[in-house]
Every structure is written in C-alpha cells, then in structure tokens.
Amino acid sequence: MRKNEGNGGFSLIETVAGFSLMILAVFGFLTLTGAEGKRFAWETQIRDCFRQARQMALSGEGEASGKSLRLRFTLESSGPRDEVSETFEIYQASVPWEEGEVSVEFYRHE
Fold this sequence. Notes:
This protein has 110 residues and is α+β, with helices and mostly antiparallel strands. Helices cover 43% and strands 35% of the residues. Strand 1 and strand 2 form a beta hairpin. The termini are far apart.
C-alpha cells in the first residue's frame, strides 16, 4: 500500500498550469480594458469637437464653402403654376482636432 493514496492535492505542474491560465485571463482583461479606455477618450474628444462645431454653426460662425443649395417649390393648382425659388449658401464650421479636423456644414438663407 502507498502512503500518498489518501492525499487529494494538486501536483506542481497542475498548479503552475492553473496560475498561468489565470495570469493570461487577467492580462487579456486588462488589455481589453485599456483599449476601451483609449476608445472612450477618443469618442469623448470627437464628441466635444462636434459640439463646438455645432455651437459655431448655431451662432452663425463659419466660412463660406462657395457652394449653394437652391430649392424650387411649385404649387400645382387648377390655374397657372406658382413657383417660389429659395437659395441657401452652404457654410462650414470647423474645429481642429488632434487627428485632423471636425466640421459641420450648415445653410444660410440669402
């Protein structure tokens, strides 16, 4: 009869393998958490830039893009057709960002 038959412990190899798997799982979790933190910071920065550009557009700041939008409205009735034409100049409000520029287009009625 052997002495160690009643012991139900883990061998050294099983213990090392278990700790290795736990370390890999923790490392993977920390890597994902760090990547999510960077992505969250990036999203926050771009959201703030869009908010600034939107505020600029609402207050009428920005530069003319040289383009315009022309809308023509036609009222159809039994009589002669009535047409109304409206022109809107396209402007652009831009905010510098570390990876380029964030811009919002808006229209002004001329």
